[in-house]
């Protein structure tokens, strides 16, 4: 049986808003250790994206996982749910 790791599937996957705005690329995820729930997506923002309304950590935007509406070719997030 071959193994597939989520990091290989998601790392550098492009993140886009429901309105088509390109937000950036997924760099990492923040997971709650006790329950294993995904809390936030750590996104390296596109240079043209205005990240001023979002929670940040260092050079990353933190998007709450509950703002994700789909994961396929892109990770699609609802910007209104993601604002700090």
What does this structure look like?
With 84 residues, this protein is mainly beta. It has one domain (6-79): Roll (SH3 type barrels). The protein is 11% helix and 43% strand. Strands 4-5-3-2-1-7-6 form a 7-stranded mixed β-sheet. Strand 6 and strand 7 form a beta hairpin. It is globular and about 35 Å long. The mean pLDDT is 86.
Q: What features would you highlight for this structure?
A:
single chain, 84 residues, mainly beta, SH3 type barrels, seven-stranded mixed beta sheet, 43% strand
Strand content: 35-45%
Order of helices and strands: HEEEEEEEH
**Assigned CATH architecture:** Roll
CATH class category: Mainly Beta
Biggest sheet layout: 7 strands, mixed
Strand order of the largest sheet: 4-5-3-2-1-7-6
The structural domain count equals: 1
Unreliable runs, pLDDT <50, ≥5 residues? Answer: none
Helix content: 10-25%
- Would you report the number of β strands? 7
CATH third-tier fold name: SH3 type barrels
Q: From the alpha carbons, calculate the radius of gyration and give it in angstroms.
A: 13 Å
Which term fits the overall shape?
globular
Instruction: Say which CATH homologous superfamily is assigned.
Output: PRC-barrel domain
Distance between the termini: 42 Å
Number of helices: 2
Briefly note the structural class of the backbone. Answer: mainly beta
pLDDT averaged residue by residue? 86
